[in-house]
Specification:
The protein is mostly helical. The protein folds into two domains: about 180 residues, no CATH class; about 80 residues, no CATH class. Helix content is about 75%, strand content about 0%. It is built from twelve helices and two strands, in the order αααβααααβααααα. Helix 4 runs parallel beside helix 8. InterPro entries: TatC (IPR002033). Keywords: Cell membrane, Membrane, Protein transport, Translocation, Transmembrane, Transmembrane helix, Transport. GO terms for molecular function: proton motive force dependent protein transmembrane transporter activity.
Length: about 270
């Protein structure tokens, strides 16, 4: 016999949401503490690595460039140094970086809490797909974060770190500015890669259809190029590198939306 869900009032829903937020915050805090303690590894090994000319991405770009008989993408140095101009700047950067790392590591658990909150309004069959939803969403998010770290961040650091209006200007970058660039690149890329999941739920809600996505594909292309221009340096190569996976995600979203529509039509026929 199917379990009968107890009807909840608005205040009950608010209370339930509060506890989901509390547990999610506790998970972020837990992983944030770990990141705070591992300061040396987080900053020296991970965050400051894209400033090194030997970073993996730069080596790959250089090898690709040499394959085509040129060294246009090879770099020898990224000529800027870090500096701290405020008394509490380094501590503040440390705190916010720990929170960001905590959020990234706790993302699957946060998704689980989100799923538990919305699951009462779903069909029993949809509730059983919780593990798939969490796995796929987390996978896409982590892939996006890696894309932001190995593609968006190096492109931005290399371009902005080498850009100069005059030799009279010294390249001394505030550590907060650098970390902010890395943080925004990672989180923006992570959320952008959630596009198929977003399209799935929008289709379930009846807000979009595969035909709608196909009809406005050209408009989406323009938006993707604008988005790529926002999160990357203003050079064509960087924008194309970032735009390609986003366009692939858009095409994947059309396919997912098509599957959702077919399932909804099948369910409607069974219930008729």
């Amino acid at each position: 016999m199917a379990k009968v869900e107890k009807e909840m009032s608005f205040l009950d829903h608010v209370e339930e949401l509060r506890w989901h937020l509390v547990r999610s915050s506790m998970a972020i805090f837990f992983f944030g503490i770990i990141a705070f303690v591992m300061k040396g590894f987080i900053f020296n090994t991970i965050l400051f690595a894209p400033k090194d000319a030997n970073f993996l991405t730069y080596r790959v770009f250089c090898q690709v460039s040499q394959f085509f008989g040129t060294e246009g993408l090879c770099i020898e140095d990224i000529p800027f140094t870090f500096q701290s101009l405020a008394m509490a700047e380094q501590f503040s950067v440390h705190i916010w970086t720990s929170i960001t790392v905590g959020f990234i590591l706790a993302f699957p658990f946060i998704l689980w809490e989100v799923w538990k909150f919305i699951s009462p309004g779903l069909y029993e069959k949809e509730r059983k797909s919780a593990k798939s939803f969490i796995f796929i969403s987390s996978f896409l998010f982590f892939i996006g974060v890696l894309f932001g770290y190995y593609v968006v961040t190096p492109l931005s650091v290399n371009f902005l770190g080498n850009y100069s209006v005059s030799d009279a200007v010294e390249r001394n970058i505030k550590i907060g500015s650098y970390i902010s660039l890395v943080r925004s690149s990672l989180l923006a890329s992570g959320f952008i890669f959630e596009l198929p999941i977003i399209m799935y739920f929008l289709t379930k809600m009846g807000l979009i259809t595969p035909d709608f996505l196909r009809k406005y594909r050209k408009h989406a292309l323009v938006l993707v190029l604008v988005l790529a221009a926002v999160i990357t340096p203003p050079d064509i190569i960087s924008q194309i590198i970032v735009a390609i996976p986003i366009l692939m995600l858009y095409e994947l979203s059309i396919y997912i939306s098509k599957i959702v529509i077919k399932r909804e039509l099948k369910r409607s026929k069974q219930n008729a």
